[in-house]
């Protein structure tokens, strides 16, 4: 069965690149361009992994992860592992992400092999 990944990022170039990369490895992807859109997608679908940008307009990626986790808990649904990605070195956001115990925190531009290694180690 194909694994389903939710990609959350407001930058179209990033989402297109991630979708192409993940599809080439046999994963199914869904894109959300905002935290609100991501929460709507999680409400209606099951995902094996979330890849989320940290810096987005409105609600940042760390807060999006908190909201998704809260929704999943309240709905008695299984938690989804998360990978956070960012193009900015921000120690506060890094510390907040690590406090959530996300699977990984990758800095853009990351190597495709690096991301795929983390994805495969997390969901196969």
Element layout with pairings:
Layout: E1 4-8, H1 12-24, E2 28-32, H2 35-44, E3 49-53, H3 61-74, E4 82-86, H4 91-99, E5 104-107, H5 112-123
Parallel strand pairs: 1-2, 1-3, 3-4, 4-5
Helix pairs in contact: 2-3
In short:
This protein is of the alpha/beta class and 124 residues long.
Key structural traits:
5 helices; 124 residues; single chain; Rossmann fold; 19% strand; alpha/beta
Structural write-up:
- It is a single chain.
- The chain has 124 residues and is of the alpha/beta class.
- It has a single domain (4-123), classed as Rossmann fold (3-Layer(aba) Sandwich), CATH 3.40.50.2300.
- Helices cover 47% and strands 19% of the residues.
- It has five helices and five strands.
- The protein has helices at residues 12-24, 35-44, 61-74, 91-99, 112-123; strands at residues 4-8, 28-32, 49-53, 82-86, 104-107.
- The chain has a five-stranded parallel beta sheet with strand order 2-1-3-4-5, with helices on both faces.
- α1 (12-24) links the parallel β1 and β2 (28-32).
- α2 runs parallel beside α3 (61-74).
- The radius of gyration is 13 Å and the shape is globular.
- The model has no long low-confidence stretch (mean pLDDT 93).
